[in-house]
Amino acid sequence: MGIALVWLRDDLRLDDQPALRAALDRGLRPLPVYIHAPEEEGAWAPGAASQAWRRRSLAALAAGLERRGSRLLLLRGPTLDTLQALAARTGAEAVLWTRRYEPAIEQRDAHIKRSLRQAGLHAESLNGALLFEPWELATRQGDPYRVFTPFWKAARAHWRTPATWEAPPRLPSLDADDLPAGVRLEALLPAPRPGWDAGFWQCFTPGEDGARAALQAFLDGPVHGYAQGRDVLADAGTSRLSPHLHFGEISVRRIAASVLAAGDALAEADRERFLAELGWREFAHHVLHHYPRVPEHNLDPRFDDFPWAAPDAALLDAWRHGRTGVPVVDAGMRQLWQTGWMHNRVRMVVASWLSKHLRQHWLHGARWFWDTLVDADLANNTQGWQWTAGTGADAAPYFRVFNPVAQARRFDPAGDYIARWVPELAGLPVPARFAPWEHPALARRMAPGYPARPQVELAAGRAGALAAFAALRRPRSG
């Protein structure tokens, strides 16, 4: 029985794993291999939080393979050289993997595929991450979509009930004598500084089992009422599946199929709202594939001349560490630092504060999220920041500036989210938690360590953003 190398990357699962299935369908013994080569990911090598998650996810995957009679081989790059050497040593006939869509990775993978085929190997990539490949949907003119609503309308028109595949309980065994020793996980991905990531694992369990448990918990509770509950900051109203999706511990097809299987037990508004959130992820990958410069460049070229404020180290540092003086912004940034995750509604609020009230370039925020989010995904991260900054696809008009106090009052009406993540404000009466500077005597007495004023007055920050946008729209003289 021949061997197929199943090259694993951000698809760390056995359930609904197309590369694994392709190996078995070809009658080959799958040899699962992970090759660590972050330097090959260009300017967006994985951040610290992502690597902390990856370490645990790989350990969970290795355990799952061992239970099935197989093993996970861990190696260090360069990737092409490593795959070629491993194929030569094992006599592998094929190398199979699931596609990624980051620009640097797409280019590298295309080179790897050509090289492996030239060497006589069957090299094949498959879709294991998306419901629709980025090139499957196009406008009537044949162009990529730049607005979500028509993109999602087209996607729903072409919708097929996702077919899923269950991993077999046993996998063909491998002769250890024919394999290299590999690299120990601890050497490949050293453990973070003790205690740095402790809060992450109070909220998440990396690995395939954790992903399936998170999906089941969502189906048992928050999906019912999701259309409204997803915006309530203090409640567990979202799926929290994003890191599991990013690392491929569960397939988007499995999630979509499970939600659709709920049938009439799930209100149509809740089902469609959640599927549309999966759609936003699809749209983000669509845009990234067709416009590969967007991680570092505005999709809307008008903003190439936008008068961003000069980078201010003090402002940025206060924003990163939840010391802006705006409670809901600080709550979100502290939640991010402690848990590696932030509520989606708050992501928009903190991004608007940075890019509009402070007028700091959105890339400063995108880079910080990239390093601190456990679900840091280049497509989603880029789209989220450019959408909020007003520079990207389907962008909110630049003049739409989130009012953080109004957002907190609407989506955290009891002030519970703020009280949890900014505990020095928990003793304030609820109305004072949203804008403590409006209650200066009370704030000085009950929260003396909290900033007395916001980094910038809300009205002044909004006015400055609108003035900058107005100047951008004025035609150049001469």
UniProtKB/TrEMBL annotation:
Q: Which cofactor does it need?
A: (6R)-5,10-methylene-5,6,7,8-tetrahydrofolate; FAD
InterPro entries in the record: Crypto/Photolyase_FAD-like_sf, Crypto/Photolyase_N_sf, Cryptochr/Photolyase_FAD-bd, Cryptochrome/DNA_photolyase_1, DNA_photolyase_1_CS_C, DNA_photolyase_N, Rossmann-like_a/b/a_fold
Q: Which Pfam families match?
A: DNA_photolyase (PF00875), FAD_binding_7 (PF03441)
Locate the Photolyase/cryptochrome alpha/beta domain: which residues? 2-131
User: Does the keyword section mention Flavoprotein?
Assistant: yes
Q: Does the record carry Flavoprotein as a key word?
A: yes
Keyword annotations for this protein, in alphabetical order, are: Chromophore, FAD, Flavoprotein
Family classification: Belongs to the DNA photolyase class-1 family.
What the entry lists under PANTHER family is as follows:
CRYPTOCHROME, CRYPTOCHROME CIRCADIAN CLOCK 5 ISOFORM X1
Q: Under what name is this protein listed?
A: DNA photolyase family protein
Taxonomic source organism = Stenotrophomonas mori
